[in-house]
Amino acid sequence: MTAIPAPAPKIGDAGEYLPFARKHLAQETGPTLQDGVTLDDLWPEPDWEQLVAGGMPVQVAAEIAMMRDGLATKPRGDIGRSIITEQQWNAGYRKAVPIIRDLLITILLVIICKSH
Length: 116
What we know:
mainly alpha; 5 helices
């Protein structure tokens, strides 16, 4: 007959600081900053048909729509073992989306204008 092993002792918190441990990252970053900011908050989905009807070339509208759809819909939430905090992801996302939007529109309009 096989003996049933005794349950392993529960591992408690030793109280020491472990760099990048989730509990320490949570304490350092404070409450979550993912306040619901989304791509639609920073760059609302345009009415593509209205833009084309207003004079935007179909090709430009289609390419901008495809590139917009390829962006993350919200800041990265799981920081895991990353050295980038949730606050930094949130701030970077808030800064990057408008810049990306403006650059895409400008570049595509220049390309289309040069081709005509």
